[in-house]
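Working notes for the structural subgroup meeting. M.R. asked for a predicted model of this chain before we commit to crystallization trials. I am recording the input and output together here so anyone reviewing the notebook later can reproduce the run.

Input as submitted:
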Amino acid sequence: MAIGDTHVRPSHESPFQYDVCIIGLGYVGLHTALTYFASGLSVLGIDASADRLISVGAGMADLTDADREQLDQALTDDRFQMTADHATLGEARAVIICVPAPVNEYFAPDLNPLKRACATVTQHARPGQLLILTSTTYVGCTHELLVRPLAKRGLEVGQDVHVAFCAELIESDSTTGGPDIRSFVVGGAMPTCAQRAVETLHVHTASVDEVPSLAIAEMAKLLENTFRAVSTAVANDFADIRRSMKVDT
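Returned structure, recorded in token form:
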């Protein structure tokens, strides 16, 4: 593996150089990339941050022991490549967008990184690709940022390209502290989009539930994240109460 070196053939006969492209090599994105690599697929990781690419390339990323071992293997294998060049995303059969949505100084979601990533994806997308958005965002985002711009380019969603939204149902692994993805909830812009997404995501985890629309999958993501945030907050509050009352556990 060499950062910026994107010349590798896919693991099967395909017009694409890579099986999967992961956009955003953060906490979830890098784990996702390594999971697909471990399954035997060729993976292209794209991140806009040169510092992040250098950190991952040096094996210094924040990872669980299992993922760190997998990264060590990936960094010496031509099936795993990283780059900051978003134009190369057109070389992957499936593109999975894992860009985070951080909060700004007013604790409001900053969707600019996600909007830029989606704009780049729609600019470089080509027929035959599957585009999956996984970022936490508002209901209707996938249609607004992917489906509509693709249509303006003349790419018919459901035929030329396939678009889906995937909500990961995640728990932190108590033994490793890393992400433990229990299952996926997937909705497609068209039924054929959902079918292709399910096939691709089954490589990552055995449990993939298809729902009838993009909006339902987007809502599932918001519900999951809200539930986890509230549950964690309540648990922390009770921990503080226990300590203040000197209640031993």
